[in-house]
Amino acid sequence: MRALPCLAVLTLSALALGGCGSLDRLANVGAQPDLSAIQDPTAQPGYKPVRMPMPTPQPVSYAANSLWRTGSRGFFKDQRAQQVGDIVTVLVKVTDKANLDNETKRSRSNGEAFGAKNLFGVETKLNRALPGATASALVDADSKSSSEGSGSIARKEELTTNVAAVVTQILPNGNLVLEGKQEIRVNFEVRELIVAGIIRPEDIQADNTVESAKIAEARIAYGGRGQISDVQQPRYGQQVMDILLPF
């Protein structure tokens, strides 16, 4: 009888978890998914400035009768991103391929035998205590165990695209923290691309682009939301049951 209240609690919990998402989908029936408004990344909830180990700052010095300043990257004006708010194009190219194959085999066998053909005459009385027993084979035991396991993983992922990112912070050593987000809506489906990380100004090319492989602490996310993505995901109740059920 107690199982019914527990099942009811689980059902209500699943409905509560999926209530907000279900209402959002019902409100957008027949309508295209809304695009997010352009916002300041540093003003978003949960945004935290990046803190990294920094070298000792070097004082800026000027030489008399010289146009060169210590720490400058170029003699003439540099059009590449170098200040907070500047835009740099990130060339995203991710190629991931992995093939893993593991196999394990193990076997073990044990055998034990014990007998006493002559034991001070006691063997003649053994049949009285244990009918049918023979003194030459008092104990005979053996065991055998074996296990075998195999597993394989084959994964291949490739992503090639470009996204413009905004410099959100300049670290004390001159490295730039950038963050960019791109949304594309096609036929009731929104594709999202998010790029964030730390780059060196020296890695920015002359056309103001930087390769994703040169981004430190890179965070690259590519996904979508809409009718197709919604169908591909299991229902909220199924997700809850997959977490709670032990079998």
Task: Give a verbal description of the structure.
The protein has two domains: 31-47 and 71-103 and 154-247, no CATH class; 104-152, no CATH class. Strands 5-1-2-3-4-6 form a six-stranded mixed sheet. It has 247 residues and is of the alpha+beta class. The chain contains four helices and six strands. The two termini are 21 Å apart. The chain has helices at 3-27, 126-129, 227-232, 236-244, and strands spanning 87-114, 139-170, 176-186, 189-199, 209-211, 216-226. Helices cover 18% and strands 39% of the residues. β3 and β4 (189-199) form a beta hairpin.
Mean pLDDT: 78
Q: If helices are DSSP runs of H or I spanning 4 or more residues, what is the number of helices?
A: 4
From the N-terminal CA to the C-terminal CA, the straight-line distance is 21 Å
Beta content comes to 35-45%
Number of domains: 2
- Read across the widest sheet, the strand sequence of neighbours is 5-1-2-3-4-6
Largest sheet: 6 strands, mixed
Strand-pairing-aware structural class: alpha+beta
Cα shape? elongated
Tell me roughly what share of residues is in helical segments: 10-25%
Radius of gyration: 35 Å
Poorly predicted ranges (pLDDT <50, ≥5 residues)?
none
**Could you state the order of secondary-structure elements as H and E?**
HEHEEEEEHH
